[in-house]
Structure formats: C-alpha cells, structure tokens
Amino acid sequence: MMQEFNLPKFRAVRILRLFIYLLIVYFTSVNVKIFEKILRTAFPDFKNVIYAGTQPSELLIEHLKITFISTSAAIVLGSLLSVIILARYLEPYREIVIDTASFLQTLPSVAIIGLVIPVLGYGSLPVIIALVAYSIMPVTLNIVSGIQSVSGEVIEVARGLGLSETSIYLRIKLPLSFGVIKAAVKNVLVINVAAATLGAIVGAGGLGVPIMAGIHDFNPAYVLQGAIPQAAIALFIEELLG
Amino acid sequence: MALIKLENLHKRYGTQWAVKDVSIEVKEGTTCVILGPSGSGKSSVLKMINRLIEPDSGRVFYKGKDVKEYNVIKLRREMGYAVQNIGLFPHLTVEENISLLLKEIKWSKQKIKERAEELLILVGLEPKIYLKKYPSQLSGGEAQRVGVARALSADPPVLLMDEPFGALDPITRRKLQDEFARIKSTLRKTTVFVTHDIYEAVILADEIALMKDGELIQKSDPFELWQNPKNEFVMKFLGNEYGFHILSKYTLQSLGKLKECVERNGLPVVNRSFSLKDTLSLMLKYRTKSVVVEEPDKRISLLTFDEILSFVDKKRNLEDRINDARI
C-alpha cells in the first residue's frame, strides 16, 4: 500500500517544495544579501533591516539546536513513558497517568520557563526543558493510542503463532502504529520550531532574538528576519514527514 | 493415545455460557472438525488449546501433559495457527509473514528462504510472483493460502485452524477446501479445524464435534453423524444434502472389486476416481441403474445402484459394530 502513494510524479513535487523551503532558509539566514535589499526596499525608513547583534547563521543554528535537542529528548522519553504506560501490570493506573499528563499539557510553556529559570538560571537549558516538558505528552499519548489502535485480532494471531511479547511489540505493534507516531513527531517538531522562539527571553538565542528585538524597536524588518526562516523550517518539516 | 485431550471445559462471559462442559479427544494424525452455527463456542474451544483463552474450569492436555505446565510460547510453536480474514500482517510481505516465526526461532537466512518457497509451492502459489507482495495486493483466496503456509512454517505437529476459508466466495472456498484436503492427507498433521461449513467438515474430518450454544451435542465420524443423528437439531443442522456430502467423500476406489463385464451397452462410463456422488448423479442423468467402470488396467466392470446401496449398508454396519464396541 505504501508504494502506491509514492508515485514518482508526487515525489518530484515534494522534492521541489522541500528544495524551495531550504532555499528560503538559506537566503534569509545564511546568505542574506538579497534578503537585505528586499527589506530595504520594503522598509526604506529604517536604518537597520538585519539584526546586528548576532550573525544570522548563528541564530539559525541556535534555533535548530534547541528544536532538535528538545524534540529528540521528548521522543526518547515519550517512548519510554509509553512503554511504561502500556505495561500490562500498570493497566489499572493507565487512565490516571494519561489524565495527569494531559493536565500538565495545559500549562503554558512560558510559565514552565518561568518556573525553571530560578533553578537553572539563564541559557538554552531552561528552554529545552520547557519544550521537552511541553512536547513529551503528545509524543507519549500518540504512541500509546497508535499502539492501542492496532487491531486486537492481528495481535491475537501473532500470539497464536507463538511470537514472544517483545517481538509482537517490535515487529507488529510499533510498525503498524508507525503512521500515528510519525504524525505525532511531526506535530511536535512543528510546534517546537515555533516555541523555540521563547529562547530569546532567557538568553538562549535562536530566531526569536530578532523577533523580540523587532518588537522592542518597532522594527518590522527584524520580525520578518526571524519569522520567515522559522516558517520555512516548519513547512519543510511538515512536507518531509507529512 | 489422544494427542490433544479436552476435559470438561467451561467458560462463561457474564451469565452467558460460551463453552459448557466440552470434552473432546483428538488422536495423533487425525483431524477433528468442530462444527456448529456461529456463536456456538467452537472458536473459544479452539483457543483454549493454544491458551489464547483460559477456561474457567476444565483442563486441556497436550501429549498427556496439562497445557498449563508448558511454556506458553513453546506450546504455541508446536501448533500452527490459521484464522479467517485479516490474519496476515499488513505491513509485511508474503515472505516476511511466512518467515516471521522462523526468524524468531533462529533459522538461517538461506533455510528460511528455501522454506518460504517450498511452502508457497505447497499451497499452490508461484514463489517468484508472490514472495515480495504485500497482503493488500493479494486476492482473498491468495491471502488465505499464505495464511495456511504461515501456519505450517515451522512444521508444527499440530494445526489449529479457525474458519480459515470462512471469508471466501463459494467457488474459491470449494477450491481451497479440496486443495487443503489434499495437502492435509500428505502432511498427516493432527488438526483441529473450526468451521460452520458442513461440506468442509465432511471432506476434512476424521471426526466431527458438533456444537450448539456452547455445548457439545454429538461427536462421531461424518458417516455415523449421517446415519445416527442424536437429535432433531443435528438432523436439521446437517440438512438432507448432508448425505451427498458424505458420498462425495468416497471414490469408487472404496467399493472394492466389481463384477467384470465385456460390453458397454451404451452405459455411461466412469473411472475409479469418480466420487459416489458424481456416479449417482450420472445414473440419474442417464436414467440408468448401472454404469461402466473403466479400471486402471483398461478392463471394464459393471457398477449397479445396488452396489452403492450395499456399500452404505456395509459401512453402516461397521459403524454400528464400532459403536457397540465403544459402549
């Protein structure tokens, strides 16, 4: 079934889109000469149109670092947590754990950053922790619901054939829920690309820095400098994992 | 000795008995078909053998030992398992479906590949075409063949089959039933086969266990079930057509020596591979009480309706004698 949808025609369109998003990121964060000219034409009244405090490429790298470290950590921890939640002897507590986790999800990430700073101080760590705390639940819950959605009959057949529980988990349940899990990872990544902007508040850097500066100085060019590559990265991820 | 022995099995869901006091013995190398309308508890009984369902009370013995004393994984690997419908894993190719268990019991890659090809040939699929296909690319009949191949993969001494042909269209189903009957007779595995298809039960079974509402109504070989139905339910469930199913199971081979003749006299000609049912059908079609049998050595002999009658009679007396001996 999987191959049928990956028709060459569609694949070519996808590759083209991915390439365009990468170009946008490149020309707004790495080689910014053309971008600067465009911004100057658009905002002739401003003296600076590119944020001068940090190299644009450095902002990009910081941003990607925060996003990918926090997302990877959330995936690893979320997988472990889902295994624990799905453990048969913990079944009576499953609902409580899921409810508690869903409640934690409702806390705004800014608030989590605020709570973490007094303990860990400034830098990228509090942002990463906030993002992990924020994204661990969508990952966990999607893995859990993905695995629970695997048809009971399929699992019964696997048991009947004499497969061990570990191998049923690794060879049947996980691969069959791969689609749901992939969607969860994609959503979390997209959310984290945007949420990593918060890093600017606590001195972790990233594409939030020009945005904050733009808001502070009433300079829309700065805001665009941070927002456009960020949106392009989000679209890239969406297309890649979609 | 019975290879599989079910002893007073009970299972209740809420107030409803799914299985009520069922005892069945299956001798080594024979096929026991558990037959019954849907909801009669036949699948539940089957699943108690490989412990997918635990009975509330009663015991299951395999090779004389309670199945609870076995490691459940090892027990299941002794018993190939095939089910209706979606039994195949949709994300794995035919080859991967068949070899999943073999990988787990650490067969070498080369041996697994050979085994997968051998099994596909056995169930009538061309390995070159089918090994790399996904279940979604198979027709219902092909998928069921793969399901049977997978159940046979580790060459288990026992086969448990839960309506494996239930979801197929009538024509494909007949074809697979007849082919499976052929495969079964070459493999000589101890088989427990669940179905609601009476024809299937007759052609596959050494013994039929007829169930209704969780209870075992009658257990005997197909012929005796025909001649001595225990009650009206058995009679009604099997239907009048049942007799023809029985007759289709026997070929003219089972009639023994026939009277030789010289002339064909314009009678219909059959050979020893014809079933009794087909022979009868021919007699009716040509409105004659006798047909000419072409023997393998090219001589011809005469078969009359009376001989079919006396075959049934003889068989029946034999059943009676066995029955008397049992009591």
Search tags:
heterodimer; A: 242 residues; mainly alpha; MetI-like fold; 0% strand; flat; disordered N terminus; B: alpha/beta; Rossmann fold; CBS-domain; 2 domains; 6-stranded mixed β-sheet; 4-stranded antiparallel β-sheet; 13 helices
Note the topology.
The complex is a heterodimer of chains A (242) and B (327).
Chain A: H1 2-5, H2 8-30, H3 33-42, H4 56-86, H5 94-105, H6 109-120, H7 124-148, H8 152-161, H9 165-176, H10 178-195, H11 208-217, H12 220-241
Chain B: E1 2-13, E2 16-27, E3 31-35, H1 42-49, E4 57-62, E5 65-66, H2 72-77, E6 79-83, H3 94-104, H4 109-122, H5 127-130, H6 140-152, E7 158-162, H7 170-187, E8 190-195, H8 198-204, E9 207-212, E10 215-220, H9 222-227, H10 232-238, H11 242-249, E11 259-260, E12 269-271, H12 276-285, E13 290-294, E14 300-304, H13 305-326
Parallel strand pairs in B: 3-8, 3-9, 6-7, 7-8, 12-13
Antiparallel strand pairs in B: 1-2, 1-4, 4-5, 9-10, 11-14, 13-14
